[in-house]
Amino acid sequence: MGKWFPSIYDMAMRPLEKTKFNKIRKTLVNQAIGRVLEIGSGTGMNFPHYKNATQVDAIEPNPLMDEQALKRMERSRIPIQTYLVKAEKLPFADNTFDSVVATLVFCTIPEPMKALQEIQRVSKPNAKILLFEHVRVDKALLGKTQDVLTPLWKKACDGCHLNRDTLELIKQSNLSVMEVDSYFNGIFLTIKCLNET
């Protein structure tokens, strides 16, 4: 399944990107300013939406995803550099980035707390941290369904945890949550944070 996932991901996202999903993604990414770190850039879905960045450093651990992203990277108005690395060990100096963007990626990161620590390390003081994530829903039946499906879903979808509570993980980090907006009955959240350390 691994080698087919990038193409399947793109096909699955295409109809969503023509709906409110695209508006959410575009609005969030437009808020990224200065030098931007994108965590888990995948197939480059965010690349066309960068308008206020001066430079984007995009990391993605899956080489097959990175290949798909090259087409979108070439069409971007903003300079984008991709790196084949994991979020848990970023190859950047402390206090490098003005903004960090992560969309639909924290569900797949094997060690999310370590990734959050790295994001904080490489972000400048008061850097914007902008996330769009699906999370475990706090409704008995739907939450349980996410729990039951997660083991199979992880195998089929490149390690994605349907039931990860990313908002709670962020609250346990040293990032300051400034705003949370809920979409699609609470399955998706935009989370805006500041690196206040």
From TrEMBL:
Q: Example GO molecular function term?
A: methyltransferase activity
The UniProt entry's coiled-coil ranges are none
Protein name per its UniProtKB record: Class I SAM-dependent methyltransferase
Residue stretches making up the Methyltransferase type domain: 37-130
One annotated GO biological process: methylation
**What is the organism field in this record?**
Lentibacillus salinarum
Q: Give the UniProt keywords, A-Z.
A: Methyltransferase, Transferase
Record EC number: 2.1.1.-
